[in-house]
């Protein structure tokens, strides 16, 4: 038979094939990325292409549609059932008749780009670990006695080229029923091209995955459609372990003091995850058993407790992890109520208190892909700090304590409606104005009182504390050593005596039963200690790297995402840097989990990266104390901040 040339766009891959070759077959032969779940049976509609677009067609003969066969019955059926955009064809049905250009639209590619909103980071290439493959299995025959599993495996090899698949007893247990229910037509879910993970009766083209960030305070989950990469539902929940202790170390001591305590904590966090899975599945209108893949990140203590590992060793030097490699498990092994055949990938930990959450942050922020030096700071009760570039990466964890989250602060509270989040202080009059969460007006604007009647003004959230302190410092209310300047009391009623120290009045409520919002000397000290720990950790990494400045700073975590970079710098939380190069990264650990969920190669990538991260242990580094003391001053005793003067 005659040959015809076919060019696929946008890849530009081309080749000659006998007239009559299905376009999908030609695409496969050329390694063109075209999706398919049904294996060319005209059911899934994933293989759609557009015929005759582009330069090449202009030079062609006759009309573009003459280059391929006209719609066949299968396409007509698909069109009637599910509909196709005008100009589209099913590439498994359309055959090549003459030289043609075939465009593969983005939604027909397996490896499509999942766009991230932030311009400074790369998009996620969709390449999920779980792929669905529809197969028709030979029925059993007494004269050719083979097992149902073996016939399924043979069908997968013949129809999809998937040879040598691993399988597990749990798949076989339900297999006979499924095969008969589907009348020998089933959809197999294959994990990483290697493991037969689950079998659905009949045809199925949707499967879901969930990315989870297990934080010590909150657990967050994103449910994703693995065929599009889209987040279909998100949810969060307080970590139920809170009842055993607010912070990580108090949970470790609970385990140390109560035999069997680790099992209680494990049970609590797993119950939390299960509750969250049900919430996001309900929101998306699916069943939890439609979730076939999960990726989890968390700090080392959360990581160990979720896995049912006693975290006692992490309570003291040398902070040995039970294990630091990433791993893939069955959901049922972890007591997770997903499809019991679901696979769960847990990102690797780095070392000591630098865990899988930091691995997620690295995947998300990609310091390892840049030439310039990035500083990535994930601020929570502990700050995880990563510094480096393409050549070298360093990481440490610094004990900042919960002050940045509003704990230990007299008027501190969690970010919730009614909490002060923005503050400005007039340097002349020392009068403040502020904004609270849930209201767009400043406190000195008309209508503020009415607008906030419901929520009230209840306290100051973490980012608000940074702002109020920075504004107090800029207005001269706080001196460089952190003292609230009592001599100003003569000038402004906002400065009040408070025992032997002074405090600053941010808000006097109209109703005397409501709280007065003040910043005390103790509050300033708590933030000084936290920011000094953060800075000292950063400085330690900079010393080790041999640099005096960094080129970019990414602030991750809920708190890091809400603080104004300028104010973080005014207080000396972070080193001097061009403000245009300081950005908020959002929940980078959770984003890292989502990347590993949507792109299986990211799992191999992070596994390699963590091996070369140099862990610096702040607890045993003598220089840490020195840096810490110097960093107590505002913004710093010796370090210069030329960018702030600009
Ligand atoms: Fe499924 Fe073409 S491959 S419709």
Structural summary, described in words:
- With 646 residues, the protein is an alpha/beta fold.
- The protein has five domains: 3-108, Beta-grasp domain (Ubiquitin-like (UB roll), Roll), CATH 3.10.20; 124-201, Ubiquitin-like (UB roll) (Roll), CATH 3.10.20.880; 208-346, Domain of unknown function (DUF4445) (Nucleotidyltransferase, domain 5, 2-Layer Sandwich); 360-402 and 527-645, 2-Layer Sandwich (Nucleotidyltransferase, domain 5); 411-519, no CATH class.
- 29% of the residues lie in helices and 23% in strands.
- Strands 13-12-11-14-16-15 form a six-stranded mixed sheet, with helices on both faces.
- Helix 12 packs across helix 17 (622-630) and helix 15 packs across helix 16 (600-612).
- The radius of gyration is 29 Å and the shape is elongated.
- The model is unreliable at 54-63 (pLDDT under 50).
- Bound molecules: FE2/S2 (inorganic) cluster.
- The site of FE2/S2 (inorganic) cluster has 12 residues, from loops.
């Amino acid at each position: 038979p005659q040959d015809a040339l076919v060019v696929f766009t946008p890849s530009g891959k081309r080749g000659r094939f006998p007239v009559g070759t299905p376009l999908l077959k030609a695409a496969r032969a050329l390694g063109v990325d075209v999706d398919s779940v049904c294996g060319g049976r005209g059911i899934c509609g994933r293989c759609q292409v557009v015929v005759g677009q582009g330069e090449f067609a202009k030079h062609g003969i006759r009309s573009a549609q003459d280059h391929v066969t006209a719609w066949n019955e299968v396409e007509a059926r698909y069109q009637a059932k599910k509909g196709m955009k005008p100009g589209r064809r099913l590439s498994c049905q359309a055959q090549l008749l003459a030289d043609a250009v075939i465009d593969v639209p983005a939604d027909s590619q397996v490896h499509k780009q999942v766009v991230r909103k932030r311009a400074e980071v790369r998009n996620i290439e969709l390449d999920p670990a779980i792929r669905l493959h529809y197969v028709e299995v030979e029925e059993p025959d007494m004269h050719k006695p083979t097992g149902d599993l073996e016939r399924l495996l043979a069908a997968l090899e013949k129809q999809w080229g998937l040879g040598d698949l691993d399988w597990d007893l749990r798949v076989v247990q339900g297999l006979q029923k499924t095969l008969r229910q589907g009348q020998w037509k089933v959809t197999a879910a294959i994990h990483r091209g290697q493991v037969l993970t689950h079998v659905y009766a009949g045809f199925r083209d949707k499967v879901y995955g969930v990315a989870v960030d297990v934080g010590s305070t909150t657990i967050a989950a994103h449910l994703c459609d693995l065929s599009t990469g889209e987040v279909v539902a998100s949810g969060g929940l307080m970590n139920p372990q809170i009842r055993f202790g607010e912070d990580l170390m108090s949970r470790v001591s609970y385990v140390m003091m109560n035999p069997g305590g680790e099992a209680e904590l494990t049970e609590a966090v797993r119950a939390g995850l299960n509750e969250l899975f049900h919430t996001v599945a309900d929101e998306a209108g699916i069943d939890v058993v439609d979730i076939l893949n999960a990726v989890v990140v968390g700090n080392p203590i959360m990581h160990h407790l979720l896995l049912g590992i006693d975290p006692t060793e992490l309570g003291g030097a040398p902070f040995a992890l039970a294990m630091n490699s990433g791993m893939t498990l069955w959901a049922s092994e972890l007591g997770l109520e997903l499809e019991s055949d679901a696979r769960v990938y847990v990102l690797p930990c780095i070392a000591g208190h630098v865990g899988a959450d930091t691995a997620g942050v690295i995947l998300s922020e990609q310091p390892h892909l840049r030439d310039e030096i990035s500083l990535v700071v994930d601020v929570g009760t502990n700050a995880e700090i990563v510094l480096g570039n393409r050549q070298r990466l360093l990481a440490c964890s610094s004990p900042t304590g919960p002050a940045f989250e509003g704990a230990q602060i007299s008027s501190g509270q969690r970010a919730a409606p009614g909490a002060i989040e923005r503050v400005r202080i007039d340097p002349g009059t020392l009068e403040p104005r502020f904004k609270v969460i849930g209201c767009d007006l400043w406190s000195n604007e008309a209508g503020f009182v009415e607008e906030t009647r419901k929520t009230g003004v209840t306290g100051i959230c973490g980012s608000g504390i940074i702002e109020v302190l920075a504004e107090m410092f800029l207005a001269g209310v706080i001196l460089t050593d952190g003292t609230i300047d009592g001599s100003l009391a003569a000038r402004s009623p906002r400065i009040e005596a408070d025992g032997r120290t002074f405090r600053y009045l941010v808000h006097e409520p109209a109703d005397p039963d409501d709280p007065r919002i003040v910043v005390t000397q103790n509050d300033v000290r708590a933030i000084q200690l936290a920011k000094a720990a953060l800075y000292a950790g950063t400085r330690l990494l900079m010393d080790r790297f041999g640099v005096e400045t960094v080129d970019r700073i990414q602030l991750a975590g809920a708190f890091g995402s809400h603080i104004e970079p300028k104010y973080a710098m005014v207080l000396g939380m972070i080193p001097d840097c061009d403000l245009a190069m300081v950005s908020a990264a959002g929940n980078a650990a959770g984003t890292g989990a989502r990347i590993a969920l949507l792109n299986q190669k990211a799992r191999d990538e992070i596994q390699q990266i963590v091996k070369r991260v140099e862990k610096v242990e702040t607890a045993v580094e003598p220089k840490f104390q020195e840096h810490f003391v110097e960093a107590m001053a505002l913004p710093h005793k010796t370090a210069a901040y030329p960018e702030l003067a600009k």
